[in-house]
Specification:
- The longest helix has 20 residues.
- The chain has about 450 residues and is α/β, with parallel strands linked by helices.
- The strands form 2 sheets. The protein has a 5-stranded mixed β-sheet with strand order 1-3-2-4-5, sandwiched between helices. A 4-stranded parallel β-sheet has the order 7-6-8-9.
- The protein starts with 8 loop residues before the first helix and ends with a helix.
- Helix 17 runs antiparallel to helix 18.
- It is globular and about 70 Å long.
- Helices cover about 55% and strands about 10% of the residues.
- The chain has 4 domains: about 100 residues, no CATH class; about 40 residues, no CATH class; about 160 residues, no CATH class; about 110 residues, Rossmann fold (3-Layer(aba) Sandwich).
Length: about 450
């Protein structure tokens, strides 16, 4: 069996990786349960079935082996479909094997510039927010987009998220400082004043008994591109008596991991584990409004870090609506809704489906009087950085067409998804505005902006 132990030498040896890829492809070729899921499996089976190969993995050209890896966009759904995952003796973990193959390639030849750019969401986010609205204007210029495609490999026609000058964390800190009566310092003020402000900035005052406490894991998308979703989440949580803190945090690391940059991803993971584990020990659960980040914290942190603190973080992490769904199940969700929503088309992101927690978002939205929810479980085929790349942009739209058709066919006045990249994809494919479900909930409470 191949190893998925990052600390072992075998993990990084490319001949061992190739052997394991062929072993798993052989198992997949005899099963084919995942054929409808993504282009990786269709291409794999097509290549196995040509006369020159005829199912013999030893005859499969190396280029075909690699093509399957390149087409995997880490939706994670095959893991849930597979009957041969651990503890089965065949130990098939297709998503992590794909990550291993990319990591070994990157270790041997270096992480590509494209993957370094797409992986460094913190740098891109900070630069984009610092220069907004100029950055947004630039991203609408044809000549600039052609330049970005040539240099960074992001397709010139791909809808990109907008940047905001006021990030979520700056709003949160100012709000918390105001509540504590601490003046936020101007740029260049004494470090003493900055220290006082940052101490006050850790907690927003909950509007309830505060028997429940959470640490909010912002996500890069909310921090730089959609702070309104973060603000809505805080207001809804506070409305339900939840004490919200914002511990120090960095990108979850998934974008780097997608590009095989394991060392960079693990550095981010270590920083987050240190901070988030401390929050858990203070009696807080970790709540993330983005399914990719909550999946990463739950599933990949123990693998990438391996420490007891990483396991503690994983066990204490909840997706936002998973947490609200728990309140609903306990009879603790505030039912004081003041506005009906009407029909909603709700897209379930792949990284939420992969968490096996049910349809918590739909369940909570259905608690709003006068609201009906049509659930769409079809892949958006963006999944992190893959759908942004010029090589896969057209294929990404093609794979997502059933999702577009379902949204258009439903013709609901409100379309929602928990995933920010899925929202961009749906907007690009249908022309409809898409919002995070937490903003729908905030509107129903009458506490939206």
């Amino acid at each position: 069996m191949g190893t998925l132990d990052l600390g072992s030498r075998e993990f990084w040896e490319r001949d061992k990786v190739d052997k394991e890829l062929r072993r798993v492809y052989d198992i997949c070729g005899g099963c084919r349960r995942c054929l409808p899921l993504c282009p990786s499996f269709k291409v794999m089976f097509d290549r196995l079935d040509v006369d020159a190969v005829d199912g013999d993995l030893e005859k499969l050209p190396q280029a075909d082996v690699k093509e399957v890896v390149d087409l995997c966009y880490q939706c994670k759904l095959c893991y849930n479909h597979c009957p041969y995952t651990p503890p089965h003796r065949w130990e098939v973990d297709f998503p992590r094997l794909m990550l291993r193959a990319r990591a070994a390639e990157a270790r041997a030849h270096g992480v590509t510039f494209q993957d370094r750019v797409l992986g460094n969401t913190e740098l891109v986010g900070k630069l984009g927010s610092l220069t907004a609205p100029l950055s947004n204007w630039m991203n609408e210029l044809t000549v600039h987009r052609a330049f970005v495609q040539a240099v960074a490999g992001i397709h010139k026609d791909r809808n990109l998220p907008r940047f905001h000058r006021q990030t979520f964390s700056s709003w949160f800190k100012r709000r918390a400082a105001d509540a504590a009566g601490v003046a936020m310092p101007a740029a260049g003020a004494a470090s003493q004043a900055a220290g006082a402000a940052s101490q006050a900035a850790g907690v927003a005052i909950a509007r309830g008994p505060a028997a429940r406490k959470i640490a909010f894991f912002t996500t890069c998308s909310v921090e730089y591109n959609d702070p309104a979703t973060g603000r809505a989440a805080v207001r809804v949580l506070e409305r339900n008596g939840v004490d919200v803190s914002l511990p120090p945090q960095r990108c979850c690391g998934m974008p780097y991991l997608d590009g095989g940059a394991v060392d960079e991803a693990r550095a981010l993971v270590r920083d987050n584990v240190r901070s988030l584990a401390a929050a858990v020990r203070e009696g807080r659960e970790i709540v993330a409004p983005g399914p990719t980040c909550s999946y990463m914290l739950k599933q990949e942190y123990p693998w990438l870090d391996g420490s007891e603190d990483a396991k503690l973080v994983a066990a204490s992490t909840r997706d936002l609506f998973e947490y609200l769904g728990k309140l609903q199940a306990e009879g603790a969700l505030d039912a004081g809704f003041v506005r009906p929503v009407g029909p909603v088309t709700y897209h379930v992101p792949c990284h939420l489906r992969a968490q096996n927690i049910g349809l918590k978002t739909a369940d909570v939205l259905r608690a709003i009087p006068g609201t009906s929810v049509n659930v769409v479980e079809k892949c958006s085929a963006v999944d992190g950085t893959w759908g942004l790349k010029k090589e896969y942009y057209e294929l990404s739209l093609k794979v997502a067409k059933p999702l577009f058709d379902a949204v258009v066919s439903a013709d609901a006045p409100v379309t929602a998804t928990d995933c920010p990249l899925a929202a961009l994809q749906i907007e690009q494919g249908t022309g409809r505005r898409v919002q995070h479900p937490i903003r729908i909930l905030a509107a129903a409470y009458g506490i939206e902006e």
